[in-house]
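Anyone opening a protein record will find just a pair of labelled lines. With that in mind, the following record should read easily:
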Amino acid sequence: MAASAASADDRRPDKTTLTIMTLNGEFLWDGVRKEEGRVNFAWKRNKDEAEDHMADVAALVKAASPDIVNMVEVENLKALKTFNTKFLSGQGYKAYLVNGRDSTTGQDVGLLTRIDPEGNRIARSDKKGKSGGVSKSVSKNYFAKLQVGGKKIALVGLHFLARPDDTSRKLPRQAACTR
């Protein structure tokens, strides 16, 4: 009984390897209103175009066939679940996401995994770092604790403040990185 319960948490096709992918979904939105954030892009508020974009992103995931995907720039858990069930059906992933604090873009960071995290949940941290008098946290992050082949691992998924060459964003970006 214990062995079957443990194997249900690990859906990897090859349990001798672990493949982790990080992928920027470039606004992986579902096109269904009410959409998050104030940024506009071609498939915002357009379900058909959003699903075309999801299909393109899913092709990248399927080609790599990772066991764990850190998915960056996701709208919300609903969009990630739509992506998983509609475009990655049969791949063995479960979707996890903790809402971030980026109200401008509305982006979050999600986890698709064939190995369920401890307690079937992930968490986030709002701990702030400091740089040059600026205090800032990473607005899009999560951490997950997983057991893989008898070893405990922690996975951190995050998305830093964009435009690192923009001098006005230098200190906030550095502060978020120092936490």
In short: The chain has four helices and eight strands.
